[in-house]
């Protein structure tokens, strides 16, 4: 008998022991936060006086205090350090909700908006920028937030031991020795700091807006000890993460949740002078993927959802009866495009990256135009995006209000035109197949990343479309990492279908990496030492001219000119943009989603839970 | 070992200690562990190396991250250098007990694994408990009532459990949870209201979240063990000593539970040992489907992100669990069945 008891007992003990260990893990309930608090109490525990220079948020309605915003996010934050964060899971939590910057970009109006800074001044020649911080700003621990903190953050960013991508934005060409040049930082007084630029940069103020300042009093010693890259990790005690945004970190539990609680010293007020944020807490559920986010929203566990195209129908069907709304945000900011490999260089091993035969096809402008005319973009929208999208002709998505233009060459689906263009370019059709002047059948492969079903779907449509022209195209799905390696270094591809996301703010200056012939992401032929073609030379010159002036009308005119060349040459065949949707509970006040991240809660300090 | 002195205490201790042969057996098994770990680590490292790109490549998705930053990161993570150089570096640190930091989280790999292991063990431990708790009695009942409707029902269920693929079953259960709203659609607890729960509410909440994944995991196991138990029991019930017991006039209950059961359960002890070794990895797929914050998501995410140190450490842990699970199985068998001499 003992044998069995011992044997079952082992299981029993294991079971009970584990129950205990898992259940005791949570933190003790606190008096202030959580559902137990009556919703709408007039003054939650804000600390200190309202800062003198507090920012008044004029848009939206006056909310009420209390409650929590709950949303799901695929993937854990990797770090709580806003300087080294370089993944969207971390950025979405840190940049804005927890750490503030000097100035930002209004996600719906699409205009600059001041944040920690109350103003900035630019010298007439555009080489000196002076920023003034609001009066009375403090960190969440009560220490004053001053120009010293900006000076410290700037020094940290320049430290080679601290890998960060924000630093790249400030590069101002290179000196004689080829070393990148950076603007010079200067602290003027406690509330003022200044940058001396080497050359003009039309987006400089927005670059400063991408500095998420970190508290000097907290991290200077750590940085001096060479430990900054390891500071503010996801297992750092939350109390150490001193914040400047509307919330501070309360708990991070890997693959479970991140909880933010109100920063009781936040420096924004609503139109009536009530201190923000309204919400007590933000609870971010960490889920494996977008399907899980969708399930959580449908079950009523979360308040907002960035809706994937495949989830629009099931949500809209129930929206009338449900307690939520689905908002059509118009075209997404993310573009989808198709490129041929226009690389003319020889590979390191000797032979050219692209065989001379294929080079002849791809380099031919009429060939690219013919292909563009043969692509049924409406068909892609119908079959791959369930009708939720539109053809794309411009470099930016039409969602980018300030820079959209209709003055481009468009390529409506027209096979006759394609055939005419190809015949003109010396190609010939024999028994329904397309041959070049030397009698080679036109056949190539098209790559995209295998993980993305939408992109594979687009390639399927494109393959059929090209077959109608007598072109044999093979679909080559490869892992994302492989694709990037192909595109950036090994250059072993014929054609690639991929997409670009958008930088904030969307501005021609942000597309240097793609448009300039020397850019890393000038994907059809990157990192050129000198522009390979006349039109690339023109585009380079136009982009430099565009970022070399502050005159918006002039910038817009130049961008239109550049767009026209871009669309006429078709080095990057623009395909389609999806329609973007967001969903939110009706009880969530000031819900005002945008196509720019963080879609559903960019105005998290103004969101509130309506009364029952 | 146990050779010192003849004092009463020494003698008592020696009695408790395993025999010399037993010690040799364990020593031999343990000696085989390091080469095994090295071999497994080499293969894992080679596979990771063969995969295209590395941890840093993925960051290139952001068009604003320059090659310079990527190279800087590569140097920081020690991703520069050839395969043997990097594997050598890893091995050198590993034998000193330093398994490094996860690339993606900058946290020591065992801190990360430690956080998750509790959750995985909770799930697999509960499953183990439920599976064995159901399988043994059901198997016995099916054997005793051989050929009746009870036996047929139990057989039917077990065939179902064995033939429905686990992933499919898990997805079905998830759909069930979503459509009925009776169960949560994954996760380990109510993340929103957890802070306001009393300990008892917390217990109930976690139990509620455990139901579906445990049902999915236990179904296959129950089916498997139950069929085994039924077969063993049937064989035992036909043996002479059982007939003797019956002839002595013992009632069915005594015959079945006091005599037959103990003999029939012997071979299953080995199975039990093996199920310990699968505690760590057996619930992988189900953890993913039910968003269970355990080892599976940690490891799978690490593989996709090519977070080398984390993948290596978690593979090493799984290998160790397997080795020790098997060892325990063999030892249990040796203890329970005197006919099997360990170490001979």
Report on this model:
Chain A is 29% helix and 21% strand. Chain A has 612 residues and is of the alpha+beta class. Chain B has 344 residues and is mostly helical. Chain B folds into 2 domains: 28-94, no CATH class; 110-340, MetI-like (MetI-like fold), CATH 1.10.3720. In chain B, 72% of the residues lie in helices and 0% in strands. Chain B has 15 helices and no strands. Chain B has helices spanning 8-16, 20-31, 33-50, 67-77, 83-95, 109-144, 149-163, 166-180, 199-237, 240-247, 252-264, 266-277, 284-289, 295-305, 308-336. In chain B, α6 (109-144) packs across α9 (199-237). The longest helix of chain B is centred in the middle third of the chain and has 39 residues, at 199-237. The two termini of chain B are 19 Å apart. Mean pLDDT of chain B is 82; it is low at 1-6. The interface between A and B is large, with 76 and 70 residues.
Key features of this structure:
heterodimer; A: 612 residues; alpha+beta; 5-stranded mixed β-sheet; 16 helices; 25 strands; disordered N terminus; B: 344 residues; mainly alpha; MetI-like fold; 2 domains; 72% helix; 0% strand
Q: Which regions of chain A are unreliable across 5 or more consecutive residues at pLDDT < 50?
A: 1-39
What fraction of residues of chain B sit in β-strands?
under 5%
For the termini of chain A, the CA-CA separation is 60 Å
Structural class of chain B: mainly alpha
- Please give the largest β-sheet of chain B: none
Quickly describe the structure.
The complex is a heterodimer of chains A (612) and B (344). Chain A has 612 residues and is an alpha+beta fold.
Topology:
The complex is a heterodimer of chains A (612) and B (344).
Chain A: H1 2-23, E1 55-57, E2 68-74, H2 88-94, E3 103-105, E4 112-114, E5 117-122, E6 128-133, H3 147-158, E7 184-189, E8 192-196, H4 204-209, H5 216-224, E9 247-253, E10 257-262, E11 268-270, E12 281-287, H6 290-298, E13 304-307, H7 309-319, E14 324-331, E15 335-340, H8 356-363, H9 365-374, H10 377-384, E16 389-391, H11 415-424, E17 428-430, E18 433-435, E19 443-449, H12 453-468, E20 472-478, H13 480-490, E21 495-500, H14 512-515, H15 534-547, H16 552-569, E22 572-574, E23 576-585, E24 588-589, E25 608-609
Chain B: H1 8-16, H2 20-31, H3 33-50, H4 67-77, H5 83-95, H6 109-144, H7 149-163, H8 166-180, H9 199-237, H10 240-247, H11 252-264, H12 266-277, H13 284-289, H14 295-305, H15 308-336
Helix pairs in contact in B: 3-15, 6-7, 6-9, 6-15, 7-9, 8-9, 9-11, 10-11, 12-15, 14-15
């Amino acid at each position: 008998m003992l044998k069995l008891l011992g044997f079952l007992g082992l299981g029993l003990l294991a079971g009970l022991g584990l129950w205990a260990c898992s259940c005791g893990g949570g933190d003790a309930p606190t008096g202030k936060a959580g559902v137990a608090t009556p919703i709408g109490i007039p003054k939650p525990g804000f600390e200190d006086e309202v800062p003198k220079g507090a920012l008044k948020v004029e848009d939206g309605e006056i909310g009420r205090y209390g409650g929590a915003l709950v949303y799901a996010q695929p993937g854990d934050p990797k770090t709580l350090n806003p300087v080294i964060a370089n993944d969207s899971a971390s950025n979405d939590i840190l940049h804005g909700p927890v750490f503030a910057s000097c100035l930002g970009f209004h996600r719906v109006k699409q205009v600059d908006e001041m944040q920690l800074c109350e103003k900035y001044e630019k010298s007439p020649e555009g080489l000196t920028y002076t920023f003034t911080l609001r009066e009375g700003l403090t960190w969440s621990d009560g220490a004053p937030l001053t120009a010293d903190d900006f000076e410290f953050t700037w020094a940290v960013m320049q430290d080679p031991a601290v890998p960060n991508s924000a630093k790249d934005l400030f590069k101002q060409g290179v000196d004689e020795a080829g070393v990148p040049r950076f603007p010079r930082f200067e602290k003027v007084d406690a509330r003022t700091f200044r940058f001396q630029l080497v050359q003009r940069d039309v987006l400089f103020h927005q670059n400063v807006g991408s500095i998420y300042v970190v508290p000097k009093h907290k991290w200077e010693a750590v940085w001096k000890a060479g430990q900054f890259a390891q500071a503010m990790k996801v297992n750092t005690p939350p109390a150490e993460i001193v914040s400047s945004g509307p919330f501070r970190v309360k708990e991070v539990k890997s693959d479970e949740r991140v909880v933010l609680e109100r920063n009781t010293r936040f420096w924004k007020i609503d139109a009536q002078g009530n201190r923000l944020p309204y919400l007590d807490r933000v609870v971010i559920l960490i889920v494996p993927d977008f399907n899980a986010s969708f399930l959580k929203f449908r079950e009523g566990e979360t308040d907002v959802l960035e809706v994937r195209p495949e989830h629009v129908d099931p949500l809209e069907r129930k929206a009338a009866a449900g307690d939520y709304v689905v908002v059509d945000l118009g075209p997404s900011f993310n573009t989808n495009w198709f490129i041929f490999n226009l690389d003319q260089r020889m590979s390191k091993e000797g032979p050219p990256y692209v065989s001379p035969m294929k080079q002849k096809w791809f380099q031919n402008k009429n060939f690219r135009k013919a292909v563009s005319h043969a692509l049924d973009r409406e068909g892609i929208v119908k079959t791959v995006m369930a009708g939720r999208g539109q053809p794309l002709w411009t470099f930016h998505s039409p969602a980018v209000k300030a820079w959209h233009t209709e003055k481009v060459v468009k390529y409506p689906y027209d096979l006759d035109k394609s055939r005419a263009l190809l015949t003109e370019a010396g190609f010939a059709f024999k028994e329904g197949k397309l041959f070049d002047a030397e009698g080679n059948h036109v056949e190539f492969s098209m790559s995209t990343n295998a993980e993305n079903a939408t992109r594979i779907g687009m390639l399927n449509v494109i393959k059929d479309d090209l077959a109608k022209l007598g072109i044999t195209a093979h679909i080559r799905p490869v892992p994302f990492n492989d694709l990037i390696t192909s595109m950036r270094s090994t250059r072993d591809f014929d054609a690639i279908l991929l997409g670009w996301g958008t930088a904030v703010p969307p501005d021609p200056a942000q597309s240097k990496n793609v448009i300039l012939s020397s850019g890393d992401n000038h994907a059809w032929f990157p990192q050129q030492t000198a522009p390979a073609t006349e039109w690339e030379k023109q585009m380079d010159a136009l982009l430099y001219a565009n970022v070399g002036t502050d005159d918006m009308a002039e910038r817009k005119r130049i961008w239109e000119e550049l767009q026209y060349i871009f669309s006429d040459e078709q080095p990057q065949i623009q395909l389609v943009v999806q329609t973007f949707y967001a969903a939110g509970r009706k009880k969530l006040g000031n819900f005002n989603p945008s196509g720019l991240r963080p879609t559903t809660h960019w105005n998290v300090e103004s969101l509130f839970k309506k009364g029952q | 070992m146990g050779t010192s002195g003849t004092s009463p205490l020494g003698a008592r201790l020696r009695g408790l200690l395993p025999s010399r042969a037993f010690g040799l057996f364990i020593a031999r098994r343990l000696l085989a562990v390091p080469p095994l770990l090295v071999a497994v680590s080499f293969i894992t490292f080679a596979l990771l190396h063969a995969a295209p790109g590395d941890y840093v490549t993925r960051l290139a998705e952001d068009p604003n991250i320059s090659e310079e930053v990527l190279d800087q990161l590569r140097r920081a993570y020690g991703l520069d250098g050839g395969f043997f150089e990097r594997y050598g570096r890893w091995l050198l640190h590993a034998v000193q007990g330093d398994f490094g930091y996860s690339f993606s989280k900058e946290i020591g790999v065992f801190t990360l694994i430690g956080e998750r292991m509790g959750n995985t063990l909770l799930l697999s431990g509960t499953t183990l408990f439920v599976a064995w708790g159901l399988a043994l009695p059901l198997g016995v009942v099916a054997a005793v009532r051989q050929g009746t409707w009870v036996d047929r029902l139990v057989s039917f269920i077990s065939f179902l459990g064995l033939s429905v693929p686990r992933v499919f079953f898990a997805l079905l259960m998830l759909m069930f949870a979503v459509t009925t709203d009776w169960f949560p659609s994954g996760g380990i607890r109510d993340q929103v209201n957890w802070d306001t729960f009393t300990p008892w509410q917390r217990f109930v909440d976690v139990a509620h979240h455990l139901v579906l994944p445990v049902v999915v995991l236990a179904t296959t196991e129950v089916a498997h063990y139950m069929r085994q138990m039924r077969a063993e029991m049937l064989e035992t019930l036909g043996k002479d000593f059982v007939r003797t017991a019956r002839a002595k006039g013992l009632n069915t209950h005594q015959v079945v539970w006091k005599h037959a059961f103990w003999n029939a359960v012997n071979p299953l002890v080995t199975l039990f040992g093996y199920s310990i070794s699968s505690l760590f990895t057996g619930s992988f797929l189900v953890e993913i489907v039910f968003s269970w914050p355990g080892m599976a998501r940690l490891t799978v995410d690490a593989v996709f992100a090519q977070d080398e140190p984390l993948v290596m450490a978690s593979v090493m842990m799984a290998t160790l669990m397997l080795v020790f699970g098997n060892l325990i199985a063999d030892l249990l068998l040796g203890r329970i069945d005197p006919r099997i001499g360990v170490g001979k």
